[in-house]
Amino acid sequence: MAENENAQPQETPAQDAAQEAQPVFQLQRCYLKDASLEMPHAPEILLEPQQSAPQVDIQFEVSQRVLGNDLFDVTVRGTVTVTAGEKTVILVEGKQSGIFAIRGIPADGLQHVTNVLCPSMVYPYLRANIADLMTRANLPPVHMPEVNFEVLYQQRLAQAQAEMAAQQQPANS
């Protein structure tokens, strides 16, 4: 027998093209892009008895950037501000990013992936990092809430459509 039993089957150009056409969505790396913590009225505010419960404000946003070669950088920024009366107890901000390999997905699907799926994967890391920063400042952590990025994306789409309709209406009047 002259056949090599361990020989690998040769891929044909059609098989190569089929593999290229397969959609790809993969997290390559998740990293903490930026973090800051400010306690502008410390240590005095920590020593004062508080008359009421502190107020907590949580804000976040999602941004994307094309890196090229089917790579996308998706960042979720979160800001937690805790105030007591008129004074800020703590201000914590973090930017958690992920580098994603994405290809073979149509443009409308790509928008959904970068605005919903990618932030959903990155956000838990941001939540943990912000809670950790607050704990390291020797304050009780504020746990950022779970976020439904699908609902937020649909709200942004509806708002953009309403703005376009409002801009077109005066032109038609």
TrEMBL record:
Record-level GO BP terms: protein folding; protein tetramerization; protein transport
Q: What's any one GO cellular component for it?
A: cytoplasm
Q: What is its main location?
A: cytoplasm
- Localisation: Cytoplasm
A single GO molecular-function term is: unfolded protein binding
Q: Does the record's keyword annotation contain Iron-sulfur?
A: no
Indicate whether NADP appears among the record's keywords.
no
What InterPro entries does UniProt report for this protein, alphabetically?
Answer: SecB, SecB-like_sf
Task: Give the similarity note.
Answer: Belongs to the SecB family.
**What is the protein's quaternary organization?**
Homotetramer, a dimer of dimers. One homotetramer interacts with 1 SecA dimer.
Q: What is this protein called?
A: Protein-export protein SecB
| Natural source organism | Sutterella megalosphaeroides
Lineage runs: Bacteria, Pseudomonadati, Pseudomonadota, Betaproteobacteria, Burkholderiales
